[in-house]
Amino acid sequence: ANRTMACVLLFALLVALGFSFCGSTRRSADWTLARLCIGMFVLLAGMVGACFYTEWKYRDLLLSRTMLLVGIMNTLFATYDIWDDCVARTVPESDAYKFAELVKCDSPKCIGV
Question: Nearest 5°: CA angle at 92, between 91 and 98?
Answer without folding.
Answer: 120
